[in-house]
Amino acid sequence: xxxxxxxxxxxxxxxxxxxxxxxxxxxxxxxxxxxxxxxxxxxxxxxxxxxxxxxxxxxxxxxxxxxxxxxxxxxxxxxxxxxxxxxxxxxxxxxxxxxxxxxxxxxxxxxxxxxxxxxxxxxxxxxx
Length: 128
Hints:
- By secondary structure, this protein is α+β, with helices and mostly antiparallel strands.
- It is built from three helices and five strands; from the N terminus they run βββββααα.
- The chain is elongated, with a radius of gyration of 23 Å.
- The protein starts with a strand and ends in an 18-residue tail after the last helix.
- The model has no long low-confidence stretch (mean pLDDT 89).
């Protein structure tokens, strides 16, 4: 399936994108450019070459923003999972029968952010 971006003609800003197996058939004003393999619409920018052609290249600012947003989601989910398991370690008058497993699970949750890819997090399994 091909991803295609639609650019505003004057500013070369991305105004829309779509996926299609069909040939590119413009139905509105704009410039339609297929995205090359390995890139996605949300991390590219259009540039005009010296010969007047327009190409799409990876935009490091957009890549960083996408990574930052993904890590924010990971940390939010991590905090939620830690909150859900607080009862296993914070209640002083109750000790769960598998407390060492809960301690290991909670440490694994804390270590989630040491992984390198926020889009493919391997979450630990709760001892429940």
